[in-house]
Design goal:
The chain is mainly alpha-helical and about 90 residues long. About 55% of the residues lie in helices and about 5% in strands. Strands 1-2 form a two-stranded antiparallel ribbon. The N and C termini lie far apart (about 60 Å).
Length: about 90
């Protein structure tokens, strides 16, 4: 086997290893999972806002108004102009 074959083999192995590590970066995956979870929670608050509006014929004034319509922690959100704002909500 020639030295050039060993060099090319090593370069390919290192390249594949680097690509695998970047694809399986735990910090990146955790950040992305939190972002997606925040968006889902904001979507749940949007649905709760709609349910509140149907039940009361008025938009909610505080996030506490939505508590009966949503399960989970919604303390990171607030109501601004009748719509929820917080993590994962569009600006």
């Amino acid at each position: 086997m020639h030295v050039s074959h060993l060099a090319v083999g090593a370069a390919i192995t290192l390249g594949i290893s680097a690509a695998c590590y970047s694809a399986l970066d735990p910090d990146g995956l955790t950040a992305r999972a939190r972002e997606v979870a925040g968006q889902a929670t904001c979507r749940a608050l949007d649905q709760a806002t709609t349910a509140y509006l149907v039940d009361h014929d008025a938009a909610p004034r505080t996030v506490e108004d939505l508590r009966p319509y949503v399960r989970g922690d919604i303390s990171g959100y607030r109501i601004d102009g009748g719509l929820p704002t917080g993590p994962g909500c569009p600006d």
